[in-house]
User: What shape does this take?
Amino acid sequence: MATFLAPLIFCIAVSMLVYTRQKLIISNSEIRFVGSFKSYFISWTDITKIDMVRLGKYKTPTVTVYYYGGKLDLNKSYYLEPQFTRMLSLMETRINPELYTKRYWDVRNQITQNLV
Assistant: This one.
């Protein structure tokens, strides 16, 4: 029984360590998401589209940043409310407003009115 639980406990411990080390850094030149198995370094000029949807049972907002070469999902459940809205505000000051979808602005307005 103990030999079966050891790998399971090890996997849980590793995933918890990786999860707590994740950082989103918004600078003047790029967005960096580091600390997970895959790191992202996205220049502001590489971003092609920003979208936001509400997912799951609790309609949690998830921002998707599309860029040349892939996409990055930022889920509100990982961040506290003030951090998430500040992150959105910082991105809105750096990214061309034409790159945001209509759905992004609809969900963003719901967040600012605390309807989500």
